[in-house]
Amino acid sequence: MLSMESFVSNTDSSSIYFNTTVSAGPSPNSLHTLHQSELISYYERVVIVTVNRVGLSTVLGLTGVVSNVLNIYVFLKQGLHIVMNISFFVLAISGLLRTINFLWMTVCNNPQIDSLDVPFLFQDVQFLTSAWISGSLARISIFITTFMTIQRCISILKPMEIKTIITSLRSVIILFCIFLVNGTIAIPICLSWYLDQTFYPSKNRTLLGLVIRDNSAEAQSVVYILHATLFVISLVGLIFFTVVLILKMEQLSQWRQDALSKNQNQAISKRDKKMSKIVSLLAIFTIVLSTPTVTVSIASTFVSAFSVSGNQVNLYFAVWSFAYAFGAIEANP
Q1: Sheet holding 193-200, edge to edge
Q2: Is 25 in contact with 19 (CB distance < 8 Å)?
């Protein structure tokens, strides 16, 4: 088991180091080499992260909480007996959890937060309680939107059978499975990282901070791969079914103009057509704003330098702050 300062911030050396040994830190020569290889400085990173994850995310987090609460109220008022309302309702809950999580992250990423006399390290607590939850909720939102897009595709392809194919019970089961699968991804990290009282030489006191077990590197690799894989699957699936939905809507419009499918046009109500347009716009919105997160997740998985322990740690945190900002925008319905 390893006891460490998970994120040792040193403003003089303008870097942050991830210690993987109990007592020995990087040598002066290795630190100098590390600093020279960084694409951006620690100061530049702090400025970028503060703007994105403190300033911008605070505003988006507050507006997101309000808008998602209003959406939850509206869908409850309309009734969850409507199948699509169940998906919209769960998506709003996911959005609410994401925005609350973003607000907690803005608190922990405030540059002045470490000056508070509290018995724990905000960054360590945030890493375990918020960072991985944020990724899981982002994937959940994409998967829910994909499921909604599939529903609309079926409503166009099989308008008379849609109510028997997609029932309320089946929707609840599918949505529950989406939460379950994405939520369990972080379990290996939670089992290999935990919070405990640790002495921090840089602060000369014992604080509640992150402690890692010996198998942390393996667990982190597995989680990153699963994290990126599910992101890619969800985004590719969303793009595919969004394209299918748009093409089928366009085909249906031509059928109406040519009067070649009168019965099918009558079977699809105006409300269903409007709902399909709303879902397709929501899907496009999600695709655009999720692509940066998926791209950064892939880079974090396969580029060793682009990680918490890599020699581009400043770039890592700076780029991820942009991904979080896009995610905060996405969580605002």
Answers
A1: 2-3, 205-212, 193-200
A2: yes
Taking 90 as the threshold, does the pLDDT of residue 224 lie above it?
A: no
> How large a percentage of the chain has pLDDT more than 90?
21
- Please give the residue that has the higher pLDDT: either 3 or 157: 157
Q: Which residue has the tokens 């699963």?
A: 226
Find out whether 224 and 131 touch, Cβ atoms under 8 Å.
no
This prediction has a pTM of: 0.79
What is the rounded distance in angstroms from the CA atom of residue 285 to the CA atom of residue 148?
14
The DSSP annotation for 31-83 comes to: HHHHHHH-SS-HHHHHHHHIIIIIIIHHHHHHHHHHHHHHHHHHHHHH-TTSH
Backbone angles phi, psi at 8, to 5 degrees: -85, 110
Model pLDDT for residues 22-58, shown as the tens digit of each residue: 333 333 333 344 445 778 888 888 889 888 888 888 8
Neighbours of 327 (CB within 10 A): 24
Instruction: Specify the 3-state DSSP secondary structure of 256.
Output: helix
Torsion of CA 56, 61, 67, 72, to 10 degrees: 150
- The amino acid at residue 326 is F
- Can you say whether the dihedral through the CA atoms of 193, 198, 200, 201 is positive or negative? negative
pLDDT at 36: 52
Q: Pull the structure tokens for residue 333.
A: 């319905």
Cα–Cα nearest to 42, from 68, 8, 67, 74: 8
> Is-contact 109 49, C-beta < 8 A?
yes
- Window from 247-251, 267-271, 274-278, 306-310 with minimum mean pLDDT: 267-271
Using the Cα atoms of residue 192, residue 197, residue 202 and residue 203 in order, give the sign of their dihedral.
positive
Average pLDDT over residues 308-332: 85
CA atoms within 13 A on the CB side of 186: 19
